[in-house]
């Protein structure tokens, strides 16, 4: 007989579907409880060996059954049914099996398992087949055969929330210790959050026979205004500065599926309980083998008997609690205690409950049904010490409930870098001391009373640490609390014969890692726990050491001839248990994954027919197509228009930084590579900024608005970096009276470029902007369309040009007036693409050339780096490697065949040597209307000095297109700058 | 919808900085304000505006009223308001909405009315003020529309 619902468990029924079969569970069930109540024993197939597996636990330590929930886009694989809350309409199915759960072709792997020992996959990398087609074909098969479930390839239709939270004390876990800690901290006036991963609060108290006491305690706590009780909320990770990651599962119908709480806690209390571990024996993974604590939980909390015939095999006291609970529920219980003498008081209670107690006995190997493999009995024998036993007799059993001891759940403290310490007395690792306080079973305190004492002590310590109380620390409970010490039992090995004939003995059933695998790893040189873990996959991925971490270490230590506890566990990583990827994306997904920046001219440009392009976060006007025009046609027309008459472009995105103060000029002189101190008032100058390592950070202009007031403009791409650079250096030179304020968005601007640009500026300002009043590189603060404006005569296109900056509220008027005036001159708006064409024709650089690798010399501007003053980056710019004459230097490239279309990013090679990485690359291309061909800028080793007039092959490894180019200086048009003066 | 995220232009926001701010300078500023200067992280109301310390050597004045920086003729001043937008978060769930925008401690004791802080939202520098009516987020103007839409959407979801 398999599992069934016990009489007296009254709860509303909940319909759900398992493997396409309609079933009924009870409200408050986990999926595992509901499956057991419906008599389901085999729930899935294992990761590697495809062995049948059933429910093995009642919590996150589940290592047997992983299932897939949902359908279509809402399919979620690899869930542990022991923590899945049963909801009406839930659809679940087994995974890792084909064609069916009962008959799985992959089960042949179990027969072939000697081939799949530890390190099997790595070994395929070696030998005669490595890197061959045969290996590639096998590798595909291996990958297909292994794995855990399959995620939906469809976009996740659910939404995820992300919220920042703060509290004084975060208590992880709501068991006896957690609730006591919360109460103590709350009584000190602290703001307390209790996060419980389960959908019900109470932890171990949920298995109490009288639920009223817990309900009263929770109600009392919940009534406190400074306590937040959060069920369905797992603390999955602890990070720096008291930041904890909490994931909250929201009920069906909520606007979000899950919520990520980035919780900033001043103090964290880990009341995370302990995980019951088994021990290793032959075929210890059959459906029907589970932890003793799980068996008790299913009976007590869920009212589900996992089966009628139960054998409990324990090596410590708590197994008796399971036996007694199961016997009191009317089940037939045989209790094997690995210890020679049973603890007298517990033994008496067990016998009184009807338990058949057999001290000194252990399971040796299980037996299962021929077809499904489910447990039907086990061979047992007397424990001869050190895990040795000889099978003497056979016991029938449908459930084998095992307890080898408890491992405090120290994941959070190890994430906080608190090194765990081995307790030989308790046979477990105890949490290390540090900022995170542990209490209850998480601190190795096993008894209920002890846990509550421990919780109160932790709550008091938190209150003292946060100076919320002047009271003294409370006496903490000592770890332990059992009637008799546990037996150090990790593995039962048949005495007198080779272990290999005794069935597979799993250390980590989740990853199909056996004790032999651990020994093999050690034998092959992977002796350190970190190495053994990676070689065998023990305790990796979703498990994070819950199922077999401690047992694996013990087996390894024994294999090394060392004492148990001599090896420290590997660092547990967040998340404690798997969490949805969606919570990390939160609301940042789909079209809104990144914010959108719009300039003050956006609406006007849109009305003028602009097509926008993403430039970082900015939406920039790319081109203004006329009917029938595409990007190329429109941008070439716009570029030609600028050269012929006048164009208007939105340049608001340029970075702007105001530098003020008595020493502002001195500050800028130290910051820029070229001199700035001698810049006259009312003039602007091109400037080159270097990083501390001598590499060009950015370029821009400096406008001297007054003796002690400057405006620095920089490129759109580097606006934030440049502003930060200036601010940082400002604070490094406190002796200078200078302030640095970014004002990028406090001003917006238009560029007026072209031979008729002055006429447009006159129309906008009504001021004298003649060459005498506003010469090239002149700056004036005047009015434009009635609003205060900053105007500078600067050119990026090589034409006479002006930049007009106004406050954003004046943007619309400026745009309308500028376009009207430009239209009167035969001009119009131009976009980013035309702007790029114009600057490539002139050989001006942008972020595609200033790419974080180049020096002023590489850009063909060695003279910009002053030799007469010191400045940021000068010292390291003079490193030998940066002065190497063979460095790639900016060049211009024209196609030999005018119609050829070179691609940006193409590699440059000397003709006849067209292999490898070449001598440089193409950085920018432009379809130049002025030259009637696609021209390019790029970098070539030695630059124009070496390659002027010579042919290079531009090879685009992506398109496979090769274009023969003639190299020359980077400036293609008006090399003497005559057009600047219109 | 009771819960709102209302986008509007930022009122004038003027910043004044001095190379060094000593007690005499602070006294002059307090006299110009007509009230004691607020401690860090708090704003003080003056005639037609709010004053707070933005950095060790910088103070800001938000509002249409005349800034008290006439007390510091030697200060470097800059007008930042035109580059910002204001998103007003109102209603009983305003704090919940704000908690999705910034990582600050918004609990009553930590961020009472009158509190102000500069922080980061979606990679951008923002300033959060708490007034009697609710919470105001000052964000870069270019991002105002996007941020307000996101916060309004969150508010809508929280309201259900």
Description:
Chain A is α+β, with helices and mostly antiparallel strands and 982 residues long. Chain A contains 24 helices and 50 strands. In chain A, a hairpin with a 4-residue loop joins strand 12 and strand 13 (243-249). In chain A, helix 7 (292-300) packs parallel to helix 8 (318-328), helix 12 (515-523) packs across helix 14 and helix 17 (631-644) packs across helix 22 (832-842). The mean pLDDT of chain A is 95. Chain B is an alpha+beta fold. Chain B has 2 domains: 4-9 and 83-159, Gyrase A, domain 2, CATH 3.30.1360; 13-79, Alpha-Beta Plaits. Chain B starts with a strand and ends with a helix. The A-B interface holds A 159, 161-166, 191, 255-256, 262, 264, 587-588, 592, 594-600, 617-618, 658, 660-662, 708-709, 737-739, 741, 743-747, 807-809 and B 9, 15, 17, 19, 57-58, 76, 78-84, 96, 99-100, 102-107, 110, 122-124, 140-143, 145-147, 150, 154, 157-158, 160.
Question: What secondary-structure arrangement, pairings included, does this model have?
Answer:
The complex is a heterodimer of chains A (982) and B (160).
Chain A: E1 4-5, E2 13-18, E3 21-26, H1 31-37, E4 44-45, E5 52-53, E6 67-69, E7 76-79, E8 90-94, H2 108-111, H3 120-123, H4 133-145, E9 160-172, H5 176-187, E10 192-195, H6 211-222, E11 227-230, E12 233-238, E13 243-249, E14 258-270, E15 274-277, E16 289-291, H7 292-300, E17 304-305, E18 309-314, H8 318-328, E19 332-337, H9 344-353, E20 356-359, E21 361-368, E22 375-385, E23 388-396, E24 399-403, E25 405-408, H10 411-415, E26 421-423, E27 428-430, E28 437-438, H11 448-465, E29 493-494, E30 506-508, E31 513-514, H12 515-523, H13 529-536, H14 549-559, H15 582-585, H16 602-607, E32 611-615, E33 618-623, H17 631-644, E34 647-650, E35 655-660, H18 664-671, E36 684-690, E37 696-706, E38 709-714, H19 719-732, E39 739-742, E40 748-753, H20 757-765, E41 779-784, E42 787-792, E43 801-806, H21 811-824, E44 828-829, H22 832-842, H23 874-877, E45 888-895, E46 907-910, E47 920-928, E48 933-941, H24 943-947, E49 951-955, E50 962-968
Parallel strand pairs in A: 2-8, 9-10, 9-14, 10-11, 14-28, 16-24, 18-19, 18-24, 19-20, 23-29, 34-44
Antiparallel strand pairs in A: 1-17, 2-3, 4-5, 6-7, 6-8, 12-13, 13-14, 15-25, 21-22, 22-23, 26-27, 30-31, 32-33, 34-40, 35-38, 35-39, 36-37, 37-38, 40-43, 41-42, 42-43, 45-48, 45-50, 46-47, 46-49, 47-48, 49-50
Chain B: E1 4-9, E2 13-17, H1 23-33, E3 44-46, E4 49-55, E5 58-62, E6 76-79, E7 84-90, H2 94-99, E8 116-121, E9 124-130, E10 135-140, H3 141-159
Antiparallel strand pairs in B: 1-7, 2-5, 2-6, 3-4, 4-5, 7-10, 8-9, 9-10
Protein name (chain B): Sarcosine oxidase, gamma subunit family, heterotetrameric form
InterPro entries (chain B): TrmE/GcvT-like
Organism (chain B): Albimonas pacifica
């Amino acid at each position: 007989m398999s599992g069934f619902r016990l009489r007296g468990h009254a709860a509303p029924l909940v319909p759900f579907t398992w493997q396409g079969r309609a079933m009924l569970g009870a409200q408050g069930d986990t999926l595992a409880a509901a499956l057991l109540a419906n008599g389901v024993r085999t729930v899935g197939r294992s990761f590697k060996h495809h062995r049948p597996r059933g429910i093995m636990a009642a919590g996150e330590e589940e290592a047997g059954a992983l299932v897939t929930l949902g359908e279509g886009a809402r399919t979620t694989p690899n869930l542990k049914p022991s923590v899945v809350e049963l909801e009406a309409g839930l659809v679940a199915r087994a995974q890792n099996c084909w064609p069916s759960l009962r008959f799985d072709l992959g089960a042949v792997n179990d027969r072939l398992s000697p081939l799949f020992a530890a390190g099997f996959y790595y070994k395929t990398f070696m030998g005669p087949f490595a890197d061959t087609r045969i290996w590639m074909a096998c590798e595909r098969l291996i990958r297909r055969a292994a794995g855990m479930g399959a995620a939906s390839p469809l976009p996740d239709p659910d939404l995820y929330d992300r919220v920042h939270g703060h509290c004084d004390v975060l208590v992880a876990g709501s068991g006896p210790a957690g609730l006591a800690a919360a109460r103590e901290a709350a009584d000190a006036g602290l703001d307390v959050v209790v996060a419980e991963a389960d959908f019900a609060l109470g932890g171990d108290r949920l298995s109490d026979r009288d639920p009223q006491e817990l309900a009263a305690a929770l109600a009392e706590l919940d009534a406190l205004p400074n306590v937040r009780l959060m069920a369905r909320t797992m603390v999955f990770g602890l990070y720096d500065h008291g930041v904890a990651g909490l994931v909250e599962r929201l009920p069906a119908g909520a606007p979000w599926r899950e919520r990520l709480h980035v919780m900033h806690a001043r103090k964290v209390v880990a009341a995370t309980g302990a995980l019951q571990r088994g021990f290793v024996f032959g075929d210890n993974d059959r459906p029907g083998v589970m932890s003793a604590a799980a068996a008790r939980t299913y009976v007590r909390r869920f009212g589900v008997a996992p089966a009628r015939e139960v054998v409990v095999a324990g090596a410590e006291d708590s197994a008796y609690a399971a036996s007694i609970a199961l016997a009191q529920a009317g089940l037939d219980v045989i209790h094997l205690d690995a210890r020679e003498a049973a603890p007298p008081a517990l033994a008496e209670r067990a016998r009184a409950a009807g338990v058949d107690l057999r001290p000194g006995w252990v399971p040796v190997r299980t037996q299962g049904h021929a077809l499904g493999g489910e447990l039907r009995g086990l061979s047992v024998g007397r424990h001869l010490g050190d895990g040795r036993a000889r099978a003497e007799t056979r016991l029938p059993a449908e459930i084998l409930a095992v307890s080898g001891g408890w491992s405090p759940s120290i994941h959070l403290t190890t994430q906080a870098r608190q090194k765990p310490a081995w307790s030989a007395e308790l046979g477990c690792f105890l949490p290390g001391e540090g900022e995170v306080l542990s209490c209850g079973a998480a601190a190795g305190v096993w008894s209920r009373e002890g846990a509550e004492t421990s919780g109160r002590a932790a709550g008091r310590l938190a209150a003292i640490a946060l100076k919320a109380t002047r009271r003294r620390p409370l006496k903490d409970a000592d770890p332990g609390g059992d009637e008799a010490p546990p037996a150090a039992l990790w593995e039962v090995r048949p005495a007198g014969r080779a272990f290999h004939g005794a069935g597979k003995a799993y250390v980590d059933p989740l990853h199909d890692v056996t004790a032999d695998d651990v020994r093999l790893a050690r034998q092959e040189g992977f002796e350190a726990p970190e190495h053994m873990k990676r070689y065998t996959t023990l305790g990796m991925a979703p498990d994070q050491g819950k199922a077999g971490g401690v047992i694996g270490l013990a087996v390894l230590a024994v294999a090394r001839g060392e004492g148990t506890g001599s090896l420290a566990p590997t660092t547990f990583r967040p998340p404690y248990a798997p969490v949805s990827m969606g919570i990390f994306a939160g609301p940042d997904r789909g079209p809104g994954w990144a914010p959108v920046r719009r300039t003050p001219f956006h609406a006007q440009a849109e009305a003028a027919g602009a097509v926008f392009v993403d430039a970082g976060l900015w939406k920039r006007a790319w081109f203004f197509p006329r009917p029938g025009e595409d990007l190329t046609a429109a941008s070439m027309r716009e570029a030609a228009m600028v050269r012929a008459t006048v164009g208007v472009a939105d340049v608001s995105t340029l970075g702007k930084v105001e530098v003020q103060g008595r020493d502002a000029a001195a500050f800028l002189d130290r910051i820029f590579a070229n001199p700035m101190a001698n810049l006259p008032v009312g003039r602007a100058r091109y400037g080159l900024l270097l990083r501390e390592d001598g590499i060009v950070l950015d370029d821009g202009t400096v406008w001297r608005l007054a003796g002690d007031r400057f405006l620095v403009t920089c490129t759109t791409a580097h606006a934030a970096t440049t502003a930060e650079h200036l601010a940082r250096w400002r604070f490094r030179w406190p002796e200078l009276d200078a302030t640095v304020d970014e004002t990028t968005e406090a001003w917006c601007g238009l560029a007026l470029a072209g031979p008729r640009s002055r006429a447009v500026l006159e129309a906008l300002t009504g001021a004298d902007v003649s060459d005498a009043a506003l010469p090239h590189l002149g700056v004036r603060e005047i009015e434009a369309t009635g609003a205060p404006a900053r105007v500078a005569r600067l050119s990026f296109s090589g034409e006479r040009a002006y930049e007009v900056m106004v406050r954003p509220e004046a943007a619309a008027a400026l745009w309308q007036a500028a376009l009207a005036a430009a239209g009167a001159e035969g001009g119009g708006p131009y976009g980013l693409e035309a702007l790029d064409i114009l600057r490539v024709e002139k050989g001006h650089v942008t972020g595609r050339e200033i790419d974080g690798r180049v020096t002023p010399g590489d850009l063909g501007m060695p003279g910009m780096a002053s030799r007469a003053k010191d400045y940021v980056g000068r010292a390291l710019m003079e490193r030998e490697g940066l002065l190497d004459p063979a460095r790639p230097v900016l060049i211009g490239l024209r196609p030999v065949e005018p119609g050829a279309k070179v691609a940006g990013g193409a590699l440059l090679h000397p003709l006849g040597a067209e292999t490898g990485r070449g001598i440089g690359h193409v950085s920018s291309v432009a379809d130049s209307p002025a030259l009637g061909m696609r021209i390019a800028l790029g970098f070539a080793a030695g630059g124009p000095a070496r390659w002027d007039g010579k042919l290079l092959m531009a090879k685009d490894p992506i398109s496979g297109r090769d274009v023969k180019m003639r190299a020359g200086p980077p400036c293609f048009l008006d090399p003497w700058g005559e057009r600047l003066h219109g | 919808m009771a819960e709102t995220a209302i986008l509007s232009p930022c009122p004038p926001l003027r910043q004044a900085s001095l190379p060094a701010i000593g007690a005499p300078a602070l006294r002059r500023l307090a006299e110009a304000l007509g009230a004691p200067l607020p401690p860090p992280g708090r704003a003080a109301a003056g005639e037609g505006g709010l004053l707070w310390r933005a950095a060790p050597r910088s103070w800001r004045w938000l509002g249409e009223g005349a800034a008290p920086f006439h007390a510091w003729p030697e200060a470097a001043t800059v007008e930042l308001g035109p580059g910002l937008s204001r998103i007003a978060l109102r209603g009983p769930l305003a704090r919940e909405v704000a908690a999705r925008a910034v990582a600050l401690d918004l609990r009553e004791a930590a961020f009472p009315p009158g509190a102000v802080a500069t922080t980061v939202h979606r990679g951008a520098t923002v300033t959060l003020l708490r007034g009697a009516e609710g919470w105001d987020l000052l964000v870069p103007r270019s991002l105002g529309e996007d941020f307000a839409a996101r916060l309004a959407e969150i508010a809508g979801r929280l309201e259900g």
